Amino acid sequence: MKKIIAAFDGLKFSEATLNYATELAISGKSVVAGVFLESFLYHSFNLFDMVGSQGISQTKLKRLLKKDQETRQQSVESFKRSCDKLAINYLIHQDKSFAITDLLKESIYADLIVIDANETLNHLEPDKPTPFVKELLADAQSPVLVVPPVYQPFERVIILFDGHPSSVYALKMFTYLFPWTAKYPTEIVYVKDRKSALLPDGDLIGEYARCHFENLVITQLTGEPEDKLIAHLKKASPRTVVIMGAYSRGAVSRMFNNSMANKLMEALDIPLFIAHHK
Length: 278
Description:
This protein has about 280 residues and is α/β, with parallel strands linked by helices. It contains 8 helices and 12 strands.
């Protein structure tokens, strides 16, 4: 049995995170920990907008704080009802300090984190990936599945490979977590700068991947990695999950660095599974 964290902002509850996490828990007979992140500095309202000639109305502030707490509790209850309905084993963690610090600590004791690509844990609505998601991906101690806002069950797997151990590590973690995907159509994608370049360790990666996937093809693309990968992945079904490694601060691979992962999250609305060595 594995432990999956479903990370939520209780003020903006993500149905997609809930659906992906519960579906994976059913398939893998896993426990889902609903981690509801809070911060004493984060509310549904803006304190600056409440300042008038008499200062902040304590009565109004108290009413709004109570409303926020009710909203957060409704999110917890929605999670509970869904898990109960699906007969899923679950845990509830209501972390109330600093959201990113709490989630990174939770990641030490989890097999996977599922999080919506749009999570911000603040008032701002920045472009994907949000600063919160980027910080999580850089420092998480477990693999992270970044999901789009609309749930689509997995039916196909794409493995991004660059010949570095980190990309193989991500593949290993994926097969460990999702062994039932062995029957799904699977594609290894490698981008090379020049036509004469060969797939690094082509025999070995093909041999390893075929031990875990029954229906495997290998695709080699030539050109600028970002452009070629994005164009290729945009053709993928929304029921595809993409595997990649090396979202670490010191990543140097042209295919697998922070910029590449950020570009994929910005351009695509499909789940992205990221795992990397520390």
